Amino acid sequence: VYDRLRDMVNRFNSHFRFGRKPARTVEVGERDGHWEGVQQFFSREELPPNVFVLDFSKPPGRVASDPAYGVVKQMLGAAGHLSQFVNFNTYHHGAPNADMKKSGIILQGVARQVLSKCGVRIWWVSIPKSIPMPAVFVGVDVFHAPRMFDPIANKKTAKASVAAITVNVLRSHEQKENSKIELYTETAKREAGQEMDLGRVIHSAVKNAMQALQVDPMSCIVWRDGVGDGAIAQVASDEIPHVRDALTYSNSKKEVPLAYIVCQKRIATKFLSIDGSQGLPAGTLVTSLQGPDKETFYINGTCPPYSTPKPVRYVVAQKDESLKDCALPETTWALCHDYPNWTGPIKLPAPVQMAHKLAELAGSIPDCGESIQSSAFTGKMHFL
User: CB neighbours of 197 closer than 8 A, spacing ≥ 6?
Assistant: First the structure.
């Protein structure tokens, strides 16, 4: 299985390649034996900085995810090591009667994840020319873990929530000048259910990103998920000033033009054909339904064949005068194609979807992502 995955990764002809054989092979047990074996190996071995951990696991009892996944991810994240899990319960790639076509499709997706985690831009989407470059795209989301039964308290209790911020940089409209991913991410542990008061968290992430990526931006667009109509004004008044201040880190003499967009998924609006027999196709843009106070547009990101597609409502809470001619709906739709985990459009633009994925990962590990070395993962989508 390693040989097949290695060949798929190396076929991309990127700067990141797997060797003919694994540098180290470690056999571990199940459950606690899994993470204990990983811990023992990394505590006694001196390894180079370019370690990539491939974890081939087959969890006991045919469960969907490995019980040790969160603990192993926490250890590797704290050490700054990239990793990729391949779950053989999802599909047994090494079985004698394995369907090579099905296995190949899955491993091809794994190869894309591996390269994206290393910082390779595996495909490119065109951003409207009206967006001034270099541009900073910020995604913000908060993950709320499901309530779990606590045997000590004898009731279901809520785990801490996790906020995630992704900061993406595009230097130019030309593909050749953006061959590598320029990304900085941070997470923050929150009280259970806390969605707002993220201003300082976002300020820290954006400021650190400006320093790590060394960019002097000409524009910035923020996509914020998880905010209802009644909270938009409060959240925008808290977060926008912090973003503006953080953007001036590289150049304190100018104010970077900013757009701040709230993404709302849980809405009752659906768009159908005139006869009501079909949903509108993916990419449908509706601008004729406007909110009472803010510019609003809807985009059908996906169109499932056996259910009614539900669009995402985008509320433009802030759009500076110098960005009045910028095509925000077209930029949003372009970035719906820029998520490397999926080869077609997704429901949300990539910065928000990446923030959701990162927050979900951090929320699944015991310390809620507090040990993740953000600086070590600059330019890498380590959370896919």
Answer: 238
272 falls in which pLDDT band (50, 70, 90)?
Answer: confident
Query: Which pairs from 281-288 meet CB under 8 Å and 24+ separation?
Result: 282/309, 282/344, 282/345, 283/333, 283/345, 284/311, 285/329, 285/333, 286/311, 287/329
Q: Can you tell me the distance from the alpha carbon of 129 to that of 117, in angstroms, rounded to the nearest whole number?
A: 28
Burial per residue of 318-356, b for 16 or more beta-carbon CB atoms within 10 angstroms, e otherwise: bbbeebeebebbbbbbbbbbbbbeeeebbbbbbbbbbbb
| 3-class SS letters over 311-373 | CEEEEEEEECHHHCCCCHHHHHHHHCCCCCCCCCCCCCCHHHHHHHHHHHHHHHCCCCCCCCC
Alpha-carbon distance of 251 to 321, in angstroms, equals 20
**Which 3 state secondary structure label does DSSP give 31?**
coil
Helix (H) or strand (E) segment spanning residue 142: strand 135-143
- Whole-angstrom distance, CA of residue 351 vs CA of residue 358: 11
- List 113's β-bridge partners, or say none: none
Which is more confident, 365 or 318?
318
- Tell me the β-bridge partners of 221: 137, 259
Which three-class secondary structure state does DSSP give residue 19?
coil
The DSSP output letter for 12 is T
Separation between Cα atoms, residue 158 and residue 151, nearest integer Å:
13
pLDDT above 80: residue 6: yes
pLDDT tens digits, one per residue of 128-163: 999 999 999 999 999 988 777 677 777 777 788 899
What pLDDT, in 10s, does the model give residues 87-102? 888 888 888 888 889 9
**Which residues make Cβ contacts (< 8 Å) with residue 45, sequence separation at least 6?**
24
Cβ atoms of residues 263 and 323 within 8 Å: no
CB count within 10 Å of CB 175 equals 12
CB 255 within 8 A of CB 215: no
Could you tell me if 347 and 312 are in contact, meaning their C-beta atoms sit under 8 angstroms apart? yes
Tokens standing for 33? 């034996």
